[in-house]
Amino acid sequence: MGKPAGYWVNKIRTSFKGGSSSSKSLDEGSASGSRKNDLKNSKNLKAGESNKNGEGGVQAESGRKVMVVVDTTSQSKNALQWALTHCVQDEDNITLLHVTRTPVGQAIDETQRERTSRAHEQVHPLKNFCQLKKPNVKTEIVVVETAEEKGKTIVEESKKQGAGVLVLGQRKRTSKWRVIWKWRRKGGMGGGVVEYCIHNSDCMAIAVRKKSNNGGYLITTKRHKDFWLLA
């Protein structure tokens, strides 16, 4: 007999609020071993034990760095709202990552500064939203302009910033798109940005999509696809 649905809900919720070392074991280790590590690390964080080595760029005394990929879409705001409610704790730090494309033929430093300044202004309301919901949590904005693939840039920046958790918004996929994505995966071509980040990030990467009717969220990680959380 399998475990009841409530069992898995509690386990997944625990992994979201545990340390980054537990997130890696959740995605890459065996199911039984990862659940034990999640529970152990969650208890250690709540007890205030220090992580001297700072594994994954995270120290228990200062909490994790929760990185949320943001832009001006509703999917981005939904993912941020979910992270603030279900993932971010008072001892954590929030990094709002905004990735923009480098315009072809425009590589002047001054022009890039102007574009970066405008990008900051675009996502600054999301920083205000974080400060309203989590006034005790430090929030910063990081803008990265790149000519490379967006997924690769996000993964590299999450590693550079020492993120313990990476959260991305995900839009609803049509049945036609899902068929194309499966075909691309079988052919070794890879999926979209979100799929790339989930399968290549060193830390736990979580894709979040808000359900339209009953208000819940569909959560996708390396080990869980479209897992439904009610609140």
Describe what this molecule looks like in 3D:
Helices cover 47% and strands 18% of the residues. With 231 residues, it is α/β, with parallel strands linked by helices. The protein has a seven-stranded mixed β-sheet, with helices on both faces. Strand 6 and strand 7 form a beta hairpin. Helix 2 runs antiparallel to helix 3 (31-47) and helix 6 (150-161) packs parallel to helix 8 (193-200). Residues 1-60 are annotated as: Disordered.
Strand order, biggest sheet? Answer: 3-2-1-4-5-6-7
Which overall shape is indicated by the principal axes computed on the Cα atoms? globular
Structural class: alpha/beta
What is the helix fraction of residues, given as a range?
A: 40-55%
Gyration radius, to the nearest Å?
18 Å
Largest sheet: 7 strands, mixed
Total number of helical segments?
Answer: 8
* Quaternary organisation: single chain
Total strands: the figure is: 7
What's the SSE pattern? Answer: HHHEHEHEHEHHEEE
Low-confidence stretches: 19-61
- Mean pLDDT rating: 74
Distance between the termini: 27 Å
Strand fraction equals 15-25%
